[in-house]
Structures are given as C-alpha cells and as structure tokens.
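Methods — Computational structure assignment.
A single polypeptide chain was analysed. Its primary sequence is given first, followed by the predicted tertiary structure written as structure tokens.
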Amino acid sequence: MRTIVIEPYNPEWPNEFAKIRDFLWPHIKDIAIDIVHIGSTSVPGLAAKPIIDFDIVIESYDDFPRIAEQLKKLGYEHDGDGDVPTRERFKGGPREGFMAYNMYVCPKDSMVLLAQILFRDYLREHKEARDEYAALKRSLAEKYRHDIDSYVDGKHEFIINIANTALELRKDSLPYR
C-alpha cells in the first residue's frame, strides 16, 4: 500500500526534471514540440509529492502513433488516457538514476495541457493561492494517507477554480495557441 507523502519544496526538482527531459529529447525531438514540467514539483515554493510530472507535447494526435512507437523503443508502454481525454499516460521505461516521474503525451491543443499550464503558472505568480493549495494537499494527505483516488478527488475543485481564474486572466495569451 502506497503512502501519500507531501514534502516541502525541493529546489532540486527542476534539475531532476531537466535530467529526464535531456534524456528523452534526443529520441523524440523530430516528433515532439516540447516537454513541459507540470504538477506541483514545477512550482517553486510549493510542497509536493516527490514525483516529477511532465507532458510531451505533440502537434496533433496524427503524431501519436510515431511518438508511442519511439517511446516503446525506449521501454515505455502506453497505459491509456486514465479517463483524462487528450492526455495519454506512459509507464515503464528507464527509471534508474531518475527521480520518480509520471509521463504523459498531449497534443498542443489539449484542454488538459492548457489547464495544467495555466494552473502551474498561476501558482507560480500567486503565493497566497500556492500556500492555500499546499495546505489543502497536506490536509488531504493526512486524511487519505493510503487512498490516492480520494486525495486526487479532494484537490479537483481547487484546481478547476484556479485554472478557470487563470484562463480568464490569460485568455489573450494562451500557450501553444
């Protein structure tokens, strides 16, 4: 049974993301547009589970078979969308020498990708919201120590509200648009 652990922000997390990105990029650069650090470890000052989350961004789903095949050559296995449309999960692959990570592939017009970027950037720019989110995560981790689904569900409303606020503020300068 996995225990949910929230750690104080670690300034090494961006470097850990960079190690993973630098490993992957030479293998996918002809297919992908970008590799984007998302999730709590991408927000300076935010407490988080010590797991790097990132999206490999592709032009469109037309490129998905090629990127999936390239990732398969590296040892990754497509694991479906996890009930999150326009975001494909991958598991397996090289883990030795890397911090724990979750890898996803999204087309550049994915609303999930947009929401993740807006949420990340809003928390980077708004300390009060970042601190409120950290407190919520700590509370949920304590309440649902061994129940990741309830932990994730408990964050959902906060994430949606922040993403909607950020969308309203940034509707004229959206990423990948």
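Note: Residues 13-170 form a domain with the Beta Polymerase; domain 2 fold (CATH 3.30.460.10).
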